Amino acid sequence: MLVRQYEMPWRPAYEAYAAATWLLATAFFAVVGVLGHLPRRLALPLALCCFVWGIFRGAQALRTLVLRASLGGRGVQTITTAELARWCQQPDQVFLGFGFDWRPVHAQRLYELAKVDYRQFTVSPRLLAWLGYDSHPQSDAEIGLPYIHGVEPKEIPLHRPLQNFEGGTLLVGTTQSGKGVALANLITQAVRRGDVVIVIDPKNSRRLKRVTQRACEDWRAPDTFLEFHPAFPETGVRLDFTFNWQKPTEIASRIQSIMPPDTAGAFSAFGWDAVNVVVQGLIELEERPNLVKLTKYIEGGIEPVLEGTLRRHYERTLGANWRELPEMKKLLHDAHRGNLKRPSEAASADLLAFVAYYEHHVAQSRRNKVLDAQVRTFRHNREHYQKITANLLPVLSMLTSGDLGPSLSPDPFDADDTRPIMNFEKIERAGHVLYMCLDSLPDPSVATAIGALALADLAARAGMRYNLGGYRRMSLFVDEVSNVINQPLIEILNKGAEGGIFTTCAMQTLADLAKRLGSEDAARMALGNLNNLIALRSKDRPTQDFVVETFGKTAIHTVRVGLSSGADAHLGDFSSSYSTQLTESFEEMVPADVLGKLPNLQYFASVSGGRIIKGRFPILDPDASPRTAALRPASRPALIPGQAP
Fold this sequence. Notes:
The protein is an alpha/beta fold and about 650 residues long. The longest helix has 30 residues, at about 40-70. The chain is elongated, with a radius of gyration of 35 Å. The relative contact order is 0.16.
């Protein structure tokens, strides 16, 4: 049984010689039977038997030749948006290109190819076309070895159920291996399904943005597509990442998530507290917090917020004539004469009196925690306060400098700025497609801060969706995830599926992620939240090891041939032996070094809980064909099954 399972197709088609012999025997018996040299009752059955064996052997030879002809692989294929739509007729299915299920027999063939020079066994691909196979071999100019995809001559369109991708998908591949093309295919399908789509692109890929725009033109309303670009703010929208919250402390947590990590966590905790104090004060004053206001009151001082909050507190608790109280009048007199100690130059005389009255004349039962925190910050040594918020201020300055100030902290009352003001709740309810370019090449620090803050806000929105229910499906695509990954993104990967967020992350190497998160263990822990893996060409060995670990192992058969000969001392004494041994060992389902030889756009994938496929993505050309109205589905965003609109 073990011997029958072993296959070695990378050899000459010896069966063809046997087929030719059997067919010659067929002709011989037919002729001698017709001429009467052999009784027909005997000749014709012999001819029929030889013909059957000739066909059988010919089929074996043809099978070997077809396998050898497929070693030419598959060339890069370009399709239009209309052609892609034909492969995406089922909205509950995800199209993953063309390929086949990777089974142990394919792994066996791949291991056997490593022992030989595949060029010696190639056959003209015309044989495949003649037999009805789709023959489009890979050209020599293309990157990668063609035979990796050629171990199976027949490929089919690959579809997997959409629900299998709720747990997140990881795209890994080196530069120019095809991550952008893969994202273009997946984004187009998400737009066509009616999902709310968020694309975070640190490097601003023009092709990917154009594909996203074309998908919106084909299958959505004209104003569906939204763009944000820090370098070209006038062409996009304004985004308010502090608009949506259920508790005021959420804003401080978002800012904390984009702060650089510190060993003990003390500076991060002080930064959180500094932001929270300002946020709570602004809410007391019925002002909406934004990044510009936070920067102003953390860097310039809490004094304006504290003074306004105390005025409101006294009016509410002491009445309209609170300034006429004897104690207050005395403190105001002393403050204006300079008898009260001034903690900072920004503190007005009125504020000094208000704080002194709060500290010495307001009973504990009538105080509140918001004012207590502001007074504590006001009394804090200014120099020490600046030191403990040293990690916070640079981040806030990045997000409020230049044109980023009005872009990320929009003023709805600014009549001169006509750009739309958007937030994730508004984007979700209207079913928009947001393409965020972070411009990481010229300004990586700001790009990282913007991306991390967007993810922090999206994580908060995911929590609101989970708490409130009735949400629409959202597809999040993060390219170059190592540039923006933070704890909120990990939370989205971990719990986002329950909030209806389907996440796809793309990265180049495991080392990039490890550098960002601090260690390889932290990187592996983050990637462990992604249930599906699509691996394109990868040159980094730790990344290759991570991929092949996911694919698992299979039994590989190996034939060992032994030949020995020898002679005795006596003349004429000679001995020889020949042995064949078939062994079985468990090896990687996909050899690690093969990942470094994949052609562009080709991949190995583990989807749907361990199903391994070998596939290739076609290039989607957004400008190749006119708009096809017949393929347009309803523009209304899709709902999560079982949820109310």
